[in-house]
Specification:
globular, disordered C terminus
């Protein structure tokens, strides 16, 4: 009963119903890969799972308890890396990471140092982030996963701008996270090694009718 699960989730954008009747159950150590064309709702689903966007219908639960009953607890247990890197250009690389690492709990300076080293950006620690390349910014964004421990990682196109070696590195970090009981939901168009991951095709949850202004049509 420790699954992170969804039952009957639906998402609306304006008058458009993006998806409905979406279900999954993600146990400790599990991974869920979201597939589908642009506009199928992958990023919207990640935002719903993170609590940034309310579902139009359905329930999210953790261990059988609805997320809506304990929203602060749910936010504390996850880390969301969107398709934008959320890097502050005027802060240094270390300052950026320290900010995110301190959001959840007491700042662990060693965790920040270790995360920079793991993603190969220690030499850039004191450089203003505006000087980073696209790949370096992505590595900094992903380093937040290690610097601010969480039980659930929500990743939107995490391999964008990464070279092949860094993708392999990320695959190894994810494998370690899952081996320790961590849960992962990832949206990606690119190949990424996630053994035994569940696959969810978002196109299969699209309604036959594209515009449904009445909420009851979700049910």
């Amino acid at each position: 009963m420790s699954d992170f699960s969804a039952s009957g989730l639906a998402c609306r954008r304006g008058e458009r119903l993006v998806f409905r009747h979406l279900d999954f159950a993600l146990p400790a150590g599990g991974a869920l890969v979201l597939r589908g064309p642009n506009g199928s709702g992958k990023s919207s689903l990640l935002r719903i799972l993170s609590g940034l966007l309310p579902p139009a219908a359905g329930t999210l639960s953790w261990g059988g308890t609805p997320i809506a009953d304990e929203p602060e607890l749910h936010r504390d247990r996850l880390h969301y890396v969107g398709h934008l890197d959320a890097v502050k250009p005027t802060l240094t690389v270390r300052e950026n990471l320290r900010f995110w690492a301190g959001m959840r709990e007491a700042l662990d300076e060693q965790a920040v140092t270790d995360a920079l080293a793991r993603f190969g950006i220690s030499a850039l620690a004191n450089a203003p982030a505006r000087f980073l390349s696209a790949g370096q910014k992505r590595r900094l964004a992903l380093a937040r996963l290690l610097a601010s421990g969480a039980d659930l990682w929500l990743l939107d196109e995490p391999t964008v701008a990464l070279d092949a070696a860094t993708i392999v590195l990320l695959e190894g970090i994810i494998a370690e996270f899952r081996a320790e009981g961590g849960r992962l939901v990832v949206s990606t168009h690119a190949p990424i090694a996630l053994p035994d991951a569940q696959r969810l095709d978002m196109a299969g949850y699209a309604p036959a009718q594209g515009t449904l202004p009445v909420l009851e049509a979700l049910l």
